[in-house]
Structure formats: C-alpha cells, structure tokens
Input
Amino acid sequence: MSGLTDFFPSRTVSLYMARSFLINTFAFLFGLVLILQTLDLLSESGRILTYPGNGDAQVWKYVSLRTPQIIATFLPFSVLLGTIITLSTLNQNSEVIAMKASGLSAHQVLAPLMLAGLGVAAISFTFNDRIVSRASATLAQWKKVEYGPLPVDRGDRSNVWVRDGTHLIHVQQIRGRGDAAQLAGVTVYEREGAVLKSLVSGKRATRDGSGWRLPAAQRFDVAGGTMTPLGTIKIGDGVRPDQFTLSNVDAESMSFGALREAVSDLKAAGRPTKALEGSLWHKLSGPLSAVLMPLLGAVAAFGIARSGKLFVRAVIGMGLGFLYFVADNFALAMGNLGAYPPFLAAWAPFLLFAMIGEAVLLKTEE
Output
C-alpha cells in the first residue's frame, strides 16, 4: 500500500491538482452544454411548438431529454480541455518545475489527474447507463410522434414490421419474450410480388409451434372490397419471436445490461451482432477516454518546457486528443460496417493512443 501511495505526490499536492482538473473540466462542460443546447433548441423549438397544444412545458421537456445526450457526447472533450488548462497553468506558474525538482517523475505528476479521470470515467459510465439511455429512448419515441403525446411506456415494443416471405406483418404492440410473446393489433399484408392482394387482421396472436395463432381473424380483399371472417388461423409460419422483440435494437437507447442481453438473444437466434457488440464494448471504452486525456495532454506540461512555447504545446496536446476522437469514431464506424472486429473497433483507438501518449512522454521527459 505504501508503494502505491509513494507513486503519487503528497496528499496536499494531489488534492490541489485533482481539484483544479475537475473544476476546469466541469466548467468547460457547463459552458459547452449551455452553448450547444441553446443552438440545438433554436433549431428544434419550432418543430416542438408546431404540434397543437405544445408550449413552454414541452420545450423544457425537450431540454431535459436532450441535455443528457449533449453531456455524454462532450464530456470527453471537456476532460481534454480541462487537462490542457490545468497542465498549462501548472507549467506557467513553474509548479511542474518545483514538483520535478522535488524528485517526482512525469508519471507521478500526472498520477493525480489520471486518478481523477478514472473517477470521471466511472461517473460517465453510470450517467450514460442510467440517464442518457433512458433519455435517448424517450426522445427518439417522442420524435416519432412529432412531439405529440407519448403513449404509456410499459416496456413493450410497439409499431413493429416483420417480413414473412413476400408478405409483411405489422404489430401495434408486443409483450413478453420467446414463446411467451403476445402480439396485439396484428395486420398481415398479403402480397404477390409487389402487388397487395389482401389484408388479414386480428386483435391478438400467440405463439403456435413455428407460427402464430390468430383468433377471430378477418380478411379484406383489396380488389373486391369485401371482408371475410376466417375464424382462428395460423400466420407467420417460420417467423421467430425475436424478429418482433429485437427487430430494431438501438444501442444508444439501451443500458449496458439491456444491450448485452439483446446481443445474447440475437446470437441465440443466429442473427448478426457485430455492430451491436462493438457498441457494447464502446460503452466501456468511451468513458475510459477520461483516463487517457491527461496522458495525451501531458505535452502541455512536459517536453520542450524550457522553450517558452506554451501555446504551441497546448495546441499539440489538443491535436493529439482530437485525433483520438477522430480515430475512435472512425474505428466504431468501421466496426458497424463489419470491417473491424467488435473488440478492435472499440478498444484499438484507446490502446493505440495510450501507447502514443506514453511514447511521447518517455521520449520528451523520462
């Protein structure tokens, strides 16, 4: 335990550095969120108020749902900017020189910032998992109804379309999972090629072998305009329950546990999951970028410290940080396309820039 504490500066210095880092980070985050939320609201408020009956309450509701998304997106940028300002200030005030004169290495100087970054990463993961995912799901659903009244959310799937050969099956709502799934408001669009021939509808359908049992069904003939009672029939032979429950999995709108469960269900059904696996891993690697930023921004405090080009060093640190975000988004996009394996798509930029940051630090200072 003593070896671990010896790696850090004194308690007073560590708390001073961590406090400065956190204050700068969250000050930048507050400013970015305030500006970006204002700009976003200016472009979206017209659509919100277009719906009859909407007013200030709905505008503030939009703000409450959109703000968590903006925070989640720009928290890593704020950590980068907070790191640059903290290290630049320490360097400008010769505090880094004083710490190195006392025998501390560059890694020891950065240790309090990286530990604080780990705390920010934990907060970011919890915030994304508990708040952002729910806000994203609600906002996406609200946009679908054009900012009208939201239906009561009981955790059920709604408005699902599934293809059955040339036919299309539309379900207003589905409850349950697996063979216990129940479909409500079922309409089967029977087609020959691209031509619609008839519509088969029923109130509820339950699992029946490899298909679905639809009682009190009716068929509407498009050409004749006649309605024919069919009684109890079987529809969707070969259509699995997961095609309804997992027809549209939005990784951003799901928590880590829910997404992991959805990926497991899709794998069991033999459906492709590589893009979702990449998003699942990124839910871990994304928040951990807060630990990486002090290492990438270290050039603002070390390196050519005696040249006096503080602004140049800060720009270099910012450049390394922004290159990481570009590489991270690129790798995630390639993973979604299937060009990268899921684990590589999520973790390769993090590991690559951790090595780059370490190499720069060792080369210039150690």
Remarks:
- The chain has two domains: 2-148+277-364, 157-244.
